[in-house]
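A reminder before we start the practical. When you read a complex entry, don't treat the lines as separate problems. The point of joint prediction is that each chain is placed relative to the others, so the output describes one connected object in space. Small molecules and nucleic acid strands, if listed, are placed in the same frame. In the example below there are two entries. Take a minute to note the order of the lines before looking further.
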Amino acid sequence: MKVCIIGLGQIGGSLALALRKNKKFVYGISRNKDTIDYAVSKGIISDGSSDINLKNFDKENFDIIFLAVHLGLYEHYIKKLKGFGGILSDVGSVKRVFYRLSKQNGFRFVGCHPIAGTQMSGIESADSNLFLDKYCIISGWSDENSKDVISNLWKEVGAKISFMSPKNHDKFVSAISHLPHIIAFSIVNSTYSIRKNNSGIFGGSFKDIIRVAESPAEMWADIFLYNSDFVVKQTEKQLAEMKKLIHMIKNKQRNKILKYILKTKQKI
Amino acid sequence: MKVCIIGLGQIGGSLALALRKNKKFVYGISRNKDTIDYAVSKGIISDGSSDINLKNFDKENFDIIFLAVHLGLYEHYIKKLKGFGGILSDVGSVKRVFYRLSKQNGFRFVGCHPIAGTQMSGIESADSNLFLDKYCIISGWSDENSKDVISNLWKEVGAKISFMSPKNHDKFVSAISHLPHIIAFSIVNSTYSIRKNNSGIFGGSFKDIIRVAESPAEMWADIFLYNSDFVVKQTEKQLAEMKKLIHMIKNKQRNKILKYILKTKQKI
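Here is the predicted structure of the whole assembly.
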């Protein structure tokens, strides 16, 4: 089985490395020639190219092509790959956009979202164990056979599989991933004037909350935009909850606050 | 030097254990007889009592008495300890209340807030290394000599010292600790309806953010109430930042979002 991965960031690089460990042929494409050289020298990919316009690229050499680039680049690559006979897959954080574009352009396809990855980025953060015991959400596919092939690939690299419709996926991750990033970016700003003179002193709770504010800006701008409806809705729910709690605090309603916190503990 | 610690939760218990390691005599008081028995049996305290009304308690046996109870219990103990000739200290998360009560009642006193502790609670989570390389904020004191005695005690158990006025302290922790807890409690609620059918799948960012929602409810109700002015103000700043970001997302302002995230990275 020959696999091509377009985009060699943390997720693309880690998938390449994990597949290589399982003796797959993995071809990598990155806009950055240094990334390709590094990835080949470290054995992360079997071979690769920085030709992002896919000019001398024979797509029919591959059984599977993964998009592991920012969501904003999907249209570019899907145009270039049109007519591909194998399975088109991806690892993006929003699934409706991949589903729509793949379906419109007549691909065999399987949308994927491994719930893995850290605030780090780039090929240097590739880790063959990144997906071990993590969920990979399979979300939107053209046919059962392709779905099985891609599901098995993720199982091979250690992931657990979950299935969701693209819409349910996008709603779900707006809550468990996109909202925490909205909070991380904004709390860095809202607390800055107070923190700047005491920069060494962080509570554990604060350190944890801002960890993901180190995440790549371009990637997150795209995620917020391609999932804007659910991100906005989920953030508005969060604003309403915070206002509710703050209202109780303002009015010194100790029993209500206590009940609110205790109720929380049953919902974690 | 003989030390009494009233309240043997995670912070009181850890302080007791760390002082015992340094060969101090530590007397513990807890409302729970089992806690005293456990703490004596594990060598966390030298001796102790569950007499929370301090009826057979001779305060003048001690050089230092620490309050390590919920803020709502401060008035009770300060009344009982009135006239104490040694240094009254505490480990509470809000410093204006300790400062006001200690000053009003004529104590020699030093307010303290070790920026340590986890979501765990109770004597079983006592850890003699809890304060190692963590900051202890010394905030509000009656005299320089007492301040030095207490500062040295914290240094002995491995903490780094920082000084702030009670007001500055309370403002500072509203940003780096109390706001993250407001967010943790409220995000558990705002995301619950979406999570409940997919409970096994959490992003790392979500896991990190909700960790502290496990914290003790009574303790946090008190913290929010005794620091309500700064907590409300800081949460309102956070709400404004989130609204700003959401406005850009709603209006698909990619460049503005990108700038916002990039600006964040310089402020972490």
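Discuss with your neighbour: Residues 8 and 228 of chain B are 26 Å apart (CA to CA). What might explain this?
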